[in-house]
Design brief:
Elements lengths: L3 E12 L2 E12 L3 E5 L6 H8 L7 E6 L2 E2 L5 H6 L2 E4 L11 H5 L6 E3 L2 E2 L1 H14 L15 H14 L4 E5 L7 H16 L3 E5 L3 H7 L2 E6 L2 E7 L5 H9 L18 E10 L3 E9 L3 E6 L5 H9 L6 E6 L2 E3 L4 H7 L1 E4 L3 H5 L6 H5 L8 E2 L2 E2 L1 H14 L16 H14 L4 E5 L7 H16 L3 E5 L3 H7 L2 E6 L2 E6 L6 H8 L6
Parallel strand pairs: 3-10, 3-11, 6-9, 9-10, 15-22, 15-23, 18-21, 21-22
Antiparallel strand pairs: 1-2, 1-4, 4-5, 7-8, 11-12, 13-14, 13-16, 16-17, 19-20, 23-24
């Protein structure tokens, strides 16, 4: 039998005037962890959607185990043992963990009577296999986003997938959870499962993958063994040129006056005694493991979920923001972690998304000023290099990276005094990340104060002037990036003491 589990042969696909894929041909070996990488818009998602039966190819053929595969629908794809873990969650939030894990596969005494005890036991076994601490009776909506993403992994594994596509599977996971996931991946490959791994994190690719295929502008650039290339070579293949260190900013050694002072903020079960100052022109990093309370602190400052106790002083004046509208009017802007459910209007145009928070500035009485809104949107599109055919392109038609840049553009368009960034580069490519980092650096240089909440250690160390380390809802340490390593920062975030 051929070593190739999957073979793509001259796959082409067009969407209107866009040529998404052009004669893509390469093979994936059985039991390998095979990365598929490229910038947002390179064609990765389209190719994977074809493999999953969600999109029909215009030309070409796919072989599974050396035989032509009929993959016109997801049901056909499932029969070949193909499952995909999407970056965007597909869970039912008002159901329990057990109900989600076995959704559509519920054990029954006799239809339609579900064996609830057996369902819970099967879900419990699957969760324990990943060494997670989640109750099968928890309602999914109450879980942190990282745990919800781990449930997507569990769902696929309980369906005995033989070809498992993982699309940014670690985007919301802590370092510890990533380690658990990587161990599971290695275990699956020893059982003959083939893993297609899509990630923008180069460290992950070189840690867990055996092979890598590079796509650029819908074309196959190269397929190489990971051990035969280094990160710089891979980046050059992805973007078509060498990319310098994306963390190039100079530390702000002399920040301005205090803009925001948080004093002993406390919210039961989320965080306690949170106190810090944020200065003009400063980038303050907040780092901690999943569930440490990072996002909840941002929500309190922005008025989404006010704290139970404590005070906030803004520009020297005590303030209680009773909602995002008040915070936004005062000059505080928040860019949320989950761009699709909390930040974007996917069925609206790029222009409408960018100007959504500044409609008053773009209107007179009840009339929108088209020329003014167009100029603002065009400025953000150019500033962040958003790839879209026009300002009227629907956001749902753009890649994840360009959607994230549109959300960033909206935040910048508000001309904030304080900008809170919650996982601003989750699931986007290295080039897009570099553009967002450059924008954040420029904002700090203009005197805007930024709070950077991130689970990406390199990002926090590379961009921040100071880092607050959160552990179990409390600030345990303040770290200067130039005096810490990734290992030391993770050690502190796990509750360790300074070494």
């Amino acid at each position: 039998m051929s070593q190739e589990h999957i073979s793509f042969q001259d796959i082409s696909k067009r969407f209107r005037a866009t040529h998404a894929l052009r004669k893509i041909s390469f093979g994936i070996r059985r039991g390998a962890v095979h990365a598929v990488v490229g910038e947002n818009g390179a064609g990765k998602s389209t190719l994977m959607n074809i493999l999953c039966g969600k999109v029909r190819t215009d030309e070409g053929n796919i072989l599974i185990d050396g035989k032509s595969a009929y993959l016109d629908t997801p049901a056909h794809s499932f029969r070949y043992g193909i499952a995909m873990i999407h970056q965007e969650l597909s869970l039912v939030p008002n159901l329990t963990v057990a109900q989600n894990v076995l959704l559509g596969e519920e054990p029954c005494y006799r239809l339609p009577f579900v064996n609830w005890a057996e369902m819970k036991e099967q879900a419990r076994i699957a969760i324990n296999d990943l060494d997670l601490h989640i109750s099968v009776d928890d309602i999914v909506a109450t879980l942190p986003i990282g745990q919800q993403q781990m449930l997507e992994v569990i769902k696929a594994l309980t369906r005995h997938a033989r070809i498992l596509i993982m699309d940014e599977p670690t985007s919301a996971l802590s370092e510890l959870e990533c380690g658990v996931l990587f161990r599971v991946i290695k275990s699956l490959t020893t059982q003959g499962v083939t893993i297609i791994f899509i990630s923008h994190h180069l460290d992950e690719i070189f840690t867990v993958c055996d092979w890598v295929t590079v796509l650029r502008d819908g074309q196959h650039i190269a397929t190489e063994r990971i051990r035969n290339i280094d990160q710089q070579q891979l980046v050059k293949m992805m973007v078509g040129k060498s990319v310098a260190n994306i963390y190039t900013r100079q530390r702000n050694q002399s920040t301005g006056h205090c803009l925001l002072e948080v004093n002993r903020l406390t919210s039961a079960g989320a965080y306690r005694d949170i106190s810090f100052k944020l200065h003009r022109g400063e980038i303050l990093g907040i780092f901690g493991l999943l569930g440490a309370g990072k996002s909840e602190i941002a929500h309190a400052i922005y008025g989404l979920h006010p704290a139970d106790e404590g005070t906030i002083a803004y520009k020297g004046v005590p303030r209680v923001f009773r909602g995002p509208k008040e915070a936004l009017r005062a000059g505080i802007t928040y860019i949320p972690e989950d761009r699709k459910s909390e930040g974007l209007f996917l069925s609206q145009s790029l222009e409408n998304n960018i100007i959504a928070s500044i409609l008053k500035r773009c209107s007179r009485f009840t009339w929108l000023l088209q020329k003014q809104r167009n100029a603002i949107a065009q400025r953000q599109k150019k500033l962040l290099s958003i790839k879209a055919s026009s300002l009227q392109a629907l956001l749902q038609e753009l890649s994840g990276g360009n959607q994230q840049k549109a959300l960033m553009g909206r935040g910048i368009a508000t001309t904030p005094t304080v900008l809170i960034l919650d996982e601003p580069t989750r699931g986007i490519d290295i080039q897009s990340r570099a553009q967002i980092y450059d924008s954040v650096d420029q904002l700090a240089a203009q005197g805007i104060a930024c709070i950077l909440i991130s689970s990406d250690i390199s990002e926090v160390l590379g961009l921040s002037d100071r880092i607050l380390v959160i552990y179990q809802g409390s600030i345990k340490h303040q770290v200067l990036p130039d005096q810490a390593t990734s290992e030391q920062l993770l050690h502190l975030a796990m509750g360790g003491m300074p070494q």
